[in-house]
Amino acid sequence: MEEKLRAYRRQKRREDMVETAKNTFKEALSWQKNLILPTIHNPSRDDDLESIMSEESIDFSPPPSPFFTRTLCFLYFLLWTTIYVIAIKLEFGAVYFVLSLLVFIYYNTRTGPKKKGELSAYSVFNPNCETIQGTLDPKQFEQEIRYGGLSVH
Fold first, then answer.
1. Residue 12: CB atoms within 10 Å
2. Alpha-carbon dihedral 125, 129, 130, 131, rounded to 10 degrees
3. Transmembrane ranges (predicted)?
């Protein structure tokens, strides 16, 4: 019984550490892709207690300081502004600005596949995975074709 209690306390301590790490990362700017996030092992129900409590399940690398990230952002902004001024002098400013916006949009959207166990936006805002009003599904489309548009309620 004591062993189970110690294991439970260790697990709660680790969950608290993970929660604090998540909160510190939420404070950072979301558009920085070079931020090192901790690797957390999500155990399934079948894992034994030893694999759940192993030290390898959480990466304890310290997050970068807010001063460092803000300084880095400021330096990136200065570099972009300098190149933008040069592009304006070469009468290439509008093209540089549009290409910069496209690169900014690309890096602020998902560029890789979804991670295992990660929720999609649909499941986050619609936990029961019900169809959203106004979504056209094949069953409704077939019913409208056969019986007319007023047959769907």
1. 10
2. 80
3. 67-87, 93-109
Are the C-beta atoms of residues 93 and 84 closer than 8 Å to each other? yes
35-39 long-range contacts (CB < 8 A, ≥24 apart) are: 35/63, 35/64, 35/69, 36/61, 36/63, 36/64
What the block records as the tokens of 130 is: 């019900």
**pTM summary value:** 0.41
Contacts of 63 (CB under 8 A, 6+ apart): 21, 24, 25, 28, 35, 36
The pLDDT tens digits for 93-111 are 999 999 999 999 988 887 7
CA nearest neighbour of 33 among 64, 67, 78 = 64
User: What is the rounded CA–CA span in Å between residue 60 and residue 39?
Assistant: 9
| Residue 25 CB contacts under 8 Å (≥ 6 apart), including other chains | 35, 37, 63
- In whole angstroms, give the CA distance from residue 48 to residue 52: 7
Q: Do the Cβ atoms of 120 and 113 come closer than 8 Å?
A: no
Q: What is the DSSP letter of 58?
A: B
